[in-house]
Amino acid sequence: MSSGKVVLGTLATPDDGLYDIVLINESILEEALIFLKDHFFTSEAICKAIKVLENPPLLEDLLKCMKMMITKEAEGSFASIAVMKKLTNQIICVMCFSLRPKRNNQTYFGDYAEHHCQDELMKRVFQFVDATSSKVNVYDYFNVDYLVECEILSTHEDYRRKQFGKKITEFVVKTIFLKNLPIVLPEYQEVIDNFDNYAFRSICSSKYSKLIANNVGCEDLCYADLRQLKLNECTDQNESFEIFTVGCKLSKLIMQTYSSKY
């Protein structure tokens, strides 16, 4: 297990020891998907609202979506990394970003719904998330030609509130972008240096994740409540599940990441 892992960096914590930041490749792909099923689908607000784990067709479509994202089969997907405990190779955090050139304001989920989704209910959910998250045209709003979009950030329940999400985000910003590690697709290599051409967008499905994004320089762009979707066949219409879309210029995110260190 994990014998072919590619280590990109190391994290150290005073209480829990050492962790490897690794590229999600074929050797740990199944482990990463199991991690998402056990720790992302069970706690992420949208997955909870539509009861993904109780509906096999929804689960199958969502797992296929995650797999395409991680393996870069989807257009623009380019960075999938995990944090693994060094002694046990246990995955405790997964993050996936995509880079989207200025062709339309669609999110990754809108693209997946349009071209790959098989389950009609899942397709409606993805289309709703895309429509509500792209109310603001990020390219025009920030006057950029490229968009870096945070698709997944999930941490194991036992390791939450220990800043692993913040640390792995800082690693992506400082190391992958600034040092150009070979995690970036070759066709995007020459544009990585020009940060003024980029904006950053994240879809936050909790007020806590939105607060983290706000603290690193992102402003609120738009939000919606899943009750607006009116999926009576699968959602609890009495419970509120809010989706927040936040964004900023990538240069602002980078400066905030650096300034937090000093």
Written overview of the protein:
The protein is of the alpha+beta class and 262 residues long. The chain has one domain: Aminopeptidase (3-Layer(aba) Sandwich), CATH 3.40.630.30. 36% of the residues lie in helices and 26% in strands. The chain is built from nine helices and eight strands. Strands 1-2-3-4-5-6-8-7 form an eight-stranded mixed beta sheet, with helices on both faces. Strand 5, helix 7 and strand 6 form a beta-alpha-beta unit. It is globular. It starts with 5 loop residues before the first strand and ends with a helix. The mean pLDDT is 80.
Write the layout of secondary structure elements.
Elements (H helix, E strand, L loop, with lengths): L5 E8 L3 E7 L5 H12 L4 H5 L6 H15 L6 E9 L5 E11 L6 H8 L4 H14 L4 H5 L3 E10 L8 H16 L18 E7 L2 H9 L3 E7 L16 E8 H10 L3
Helix pairs in contact: 4-5
Descriptive labels:
262 residues; 9 helices; Aminopeptidase; alpha+beta; single chain; 36% helix
In short:
By secondary structure, the protein is α+β, with helices and mostly antiparallel strands.
CATH fourth-tier homologous superfamily: Gcn5-related N-acetyltransferase (GNAT)
Question: What is the residue-mean pLDDT, rounded to a whole number?
Answer: 80
Output the number of helix runs.
9
Beta-strand percentage range: 25-35%
The chain-level structural class is alpha+beta
Percent in helix: 25-40%
Low-confidence stretches: none
- State the assembly state of the protein chains: single chain
General form: globular
Q: How many individual domains?
A: 1
CATH class: Alpha Beta
Total beta-strand segments: 8
Q: Could you say what the CATH topology is called? A: Aminopeptidase
Round the Cα radius of gyration to an integer and report it: 18 Å
Strand order of the largest sheet: 1-2-3-4-5-6-8-7
Kindly report how far apart the N and C termini lie.
39 Å
Q: Which CATH architecture?
A: 3-Layer(aba) Sandwich
Largest sheet report: 8 strands, mixed
Task: Name the helix and strand elements from N-terminus to C-terminus, one letter apiece.
Answer: EEHHHEEHHHEHEHEEH
